Amino acid sequence: NAGVMQNPRHLVRRRGQEARLRCSPMKGHSHVYWYRQLPEEGLKFMVYLQKENIIDESGMPKERFSAEFPKEGPSILRIQQVVRGDSAAYFCASSRGGTDNEQFFGPGTRLTVL
Amino acid sequence: SQQGEEDPQALSIQEGENATMNCSYKTSINNLQWYRQNSGRGLVHLILIRSNEREKHSGRLRVTLDTSKKSSSLLITASRAADTASYFCATPSSSGNTPLVFGKGTRLSVIA
Predict the structure, then answer these.
(1) A42-78, pLDDT tens digit by residue?
(2) Beta-carbon separation of B93 and A106 below 8 A
(3) Residue A112: Cβ-neighbour burial (10 angstroms; 0-12, 13-18, 19+)
């Protein structure tokens, strides 16, 4: 079984450009979470989605950031007009849901903003 | 929001020794999860312990949970150089299908 897939693994953007990060959850998982990790830090929650619905976006900046999880295809985290402070590792996790909500993580996308 | 805090922040041991990492959290939880992260990589799910469990084993890993003290520990026995990584505990932000709240992790170095 394939795990959580993320692409690209590395992404370089210049200030003002757009970044699109993709996440395909594990087979059978309908819950997707996006987290951001700065160097030497733990992961910080950004947004939680189920198919076609944003359930919780309390950790995502109101401006420039958006996320979707369409009926078909991967979940997308989109960052518009990137700034240097957006440089970080972005991780996606998926779960089946349920009481335990065991989350499994992808390899991450490392975004560098020049 | 509740937060897991790992202790120590960094730990360096010789191969073959045991490594113990601790995690404290603030509010009631229904489970606690431990993850490993190798440098520059994603997180690997190690073990989930439920609030009604006190101890759980998986291979060389042993996790304990003390809900009265709001703390958990991860013990790695007979450590290997390949165990070198950062270890994080994570707790649900609330009940149900909710995001996880992570601590800053313990950086473990196992010296051959």
Answers:
(1) 899 999 999 889 999 999 999 999 999 998 899 999 9
(2) no
(3) middle
